[in-house]
Each structure stands twice: as C-alpha cells, then as structure tokens.
Amino acid sequence: VDPIVQEDMDKFQDTFKGIKERFRLINRIGEGTFSTVYKAEDLLYDVYVNDWDLEEKENGTPFRSPPVKRRSAVDERGMIKRRPKYVAIKKIYVTSSPMRILNELELLHDLERCDSVCPLITAFRHTDQVVAVLPYFRHTDFRDYFREMRMGEIQTYFRSLFTALAAVHEKGILHRDIKPTNFLYDTDKQRGVLVDFGLAEREGTDSKPCLCQESESTRRRRITNSVTAALGPSSGYPKNDSRPSRRANRAGTRGFRAPEVLFKCTEQTTKIDIWSAGVILLTILSRRFPFFNSADDVEAMIEIATIYGNKRMRNCAQLHGAVLETTIPTIGSGGFTMEKIILWSTCRNSDGNEELPLNEGEKLAVKFLECCLELNPNKRISAAEALQHDFLRVEDA
Ligand code: ADP
Ligand code: MG
C-alpha cells in the first residue's frame, strides 16, 4: 500500500471511533467528488456468519442497529444471505449536506431487493462523519476492457446495465450519474452492479411542468405566438433580460448529461439515465473514452449539436422552451448519422478512401444506440423497452 494512502487510512481509523474493532482497512479503492472508498475486511465475518440476529443482540459497539432489517437477511428463496467478508466502506465527505447523505442511504435502502444494485449493509455515524458499508464487488476497470469488447460481450454488458436501470426506474428512481465508474462490471462473471446513489432522486420530486410535456398542438400554437414574437426584429443578446433565470437540477457528470439536463428542463425523468447509458455505448462502439470532452454545459451542447445538426438541436431546445442560436461553423444543419460517427472514430473512412461498412452486429448496435441517444426524452427508449430490443433480447432456445 502506498504510504500516503496508509497514512490516510490510519488517520481515518484513529478518528472514527470503534471502526478498528469491526473492520481492517486494506486499501483505498476510490476517490471521487463526494467520497473516499476503502476496501476492508469485516472482522466479524467469521464469528457471526449466517447469523445477523445474533449480531444485533451481542453487539455493544457503536455499530448497533444497522438500518438493514432482519427480514432482508433472508432472500425471496428463503436463503440466508451470507455477510460478505470483504466490504467497501464509503466515507462520505463531511461537506456533503445531511439531507443529501440521508437521501443516498434512503434510496439504497429502498433498492435493497434489486439484485443489480450494490446493497447497503449498514451505515454508521461518528460526530459529523458518515460511512456507508457495502459488499465489496470485484470489478474490472472500464479503461482496461472497453476497446477489446466483442459484440457479444457488449450485448451482455448492456443487458446487465439495462436490467439494473429497469429495476431502479421501476421504483421511480433516477440515478442521475450513470457512467462507467458507477457501474461496477466483472468481465469474468459478466455481471455488473450499480453504485453511487449520491445524486439519485425520486422521479417527480424536483419537477415543475416543463414545456416538453405539453401536447403537440398546444406547442405549435405557443411557438408561433410567443417565440417568433419574442425574437422580434432586433438581434443579439438582450441587455436587460427581465425573464426569470432557469433553474433545474443539473447534477451529473460532464459528457454524460442528457440534452434536457443541459437545457434545464424542469421535469427530468428516468430517461436521463438512458441517455447516459447511450453515451457509454457510443464510447465502446467508437473506442474513444471519454467520447464527449466538454468543460461546461455550453460546450456540451456544441458537441451534441455537431453530431445532430442545427435543425434537430433547435427543435430539441424548443421542446424545453429554450431557443438555440449558433453561428459556429462546425455545426451543420443536418448533422451526421451515428453510423458515420462510428466509422470515423474507428478510422474506417479516412479521406477519399473507400469505406469499410459496419458489420451486421454493429448495425444492430447502432440502431439500439439511436434509440438511447434520441434527443426527445419522450421518444427515447425506456429501460424495460430496451430489454425487449433485438440488440438486448435473449433469444429463447
Ligand atoms: P463517489 O460518489 O465518490 O463517486 P462511489 O460510490 O461512486 O462514490 O464510489 C467511488 C468508487 O469506489 C467507485 O467508482 C468504485 O471504483 C469504488 N467502489 C464503490 N463501491 C464499491 C463496491 N461496493 N465494491 C467495489 N468498489 C466500489
Ligand atoms: Mg461515483
């Protein structure tokens, strides 16, 4: 272990009362914007294996009364869940708001029966420090395998990801931060679990009506009446803009944000996770990571507009009551097809040369990709529908 990491772990063990008696920290495995994650051995593993009840009675340490209720120790088949020997301890930064921490723990608790979501074993607090304990999930670093994935492996990966998304969305929960580091995938077991519900929220909790929800006819009428009128003969940026500024949840990660998040749609749905999953697929098919590399929301819009073209992007803006004007020369009016983008990124149609076409598998993948990266969230495929798509459906033998 790196001496600096060791020092950090020692400090954590010394300041968090009681942790040494229960866990042996092994290494630091993650350091994000909101937390540090350690791999640790649960020292009570051998003593109390298969017996959660006993632990509750005898445990006089600060680790009493875990939020995981007794019934959850037994799964649907009546099997006792074994307490894992290795755990991931997520030390949530003390600068996170208590509401936010509570939100993450509550949502994880709600999702405890979803196989494809890394379950919460328990959580502890010592003064202002909160830690969440999750089973350690062995996984492969995305950067180590995404370039070499064969089509069958890509399908298996996305079947696993969309199974997880379907389960989360079914509960009316948006993850909001779907990206490779939050989907821990084991390439040997061909199984993945979702982690990091730090930005997740219940659908509808943050919403005021957005224009994208109104009917087509109302929309047409409103646009002819207001947008054209408001634009008027004068051009440029209004100096004294009296319009209320737009506010909407923009949480997420650069490059994975859906267009409706960028346009500050006030009624964001689970479809934002589908867009992010689509960006992962685009990354794999194009063999480029990160695929989008913007520094801010405006740059992100430019990147998306470069692919989709001015016309479609303007329609997308209008859908959320925004107006998009641009004179950037690289944004054409018609944009490019996903097929073209993938051929380019994999260097299969360099200037003048004959194109190597996509193979049948890639064509199907691109069809699916287009369903995920549909600009209009209302038309974008849902996780449940995705599992029925030819690209993901498991053929009955
Ligand atoms: P953050 O909010 O800081 O991004 P995450 O929950 O995403 O925190 O965890 C950060 C990283 O820690 C993950 O990307 C992953 O590498 C590692 N990690 C988190 N949970 C687990 C787990 N249960 N098993 C193994 N590694 C994990
Ligand atoms: Mg994360």
Short description:
It is built from 14 helices and 9 strands. With 397 residues, it is of the alpha+beta class. The longest helix has 23 residues.
What fraction of residues sit in β-strands? 5-15%
Chain-averaged pLDDT: 86
SSE pattern, N- to C-terminal: HHEEHHEHEEHHEEEEHHHHHHH
Order of neighbouring strands in the sheet with most strands? 1-2-3-5-4
Distance between the termini: 48 Å
Compute the number of strand runs: 9
The distinct bound ligands, ions and cofactors come out as: adenosine-5'-diphosphate, magnesium ion
Which runs of at least 5 residues are low in confidence (pLDDT < 50)? Answer: 48-74
- Please state the structural category: alpha+beta
Per DSSP, the total helix count is: 14
> How would a crystallographer describe the biggest sheet?
5 strands, antiparallel
- Fraction of residues in helix: 25-40%
Overall body shape: globular
Task: Characterise this structure.
- With 397 residues, the protein is an alpha+beta fold.
- Helices cover 38% and strands 12% of the residues.
- It has 14 helices and nine strands.
- The protein has helices spanning 3-15, 19-22, 45-48, 52-58, 98-110, 142-145, 151-170, 216-231, 259-262, 271-286, 297-319, 338-345, 360-372, 383-388; strands at 23-31, 35-42, 86-92, 122-126, 129-135, 173-174, 183-186, 191-194, 201-202.
- Strands 1-2-3-5-4 form a five-stranded antiparallel sheet. It has a two-stranded antiparallel ribbon with strand order 6-9.
- Helix 10 runs antiparallel to helix 13.
- It is globular, with a radius of gyration of 24 Å.
- The protein starts with a helix and ends in a 9-residue tail after the last helix.
- It binds adenosine-5'-diphosphate (ADP) and magnesium ion (MG).
- Magnesium ion binds at residues 32, 181-182, 196.
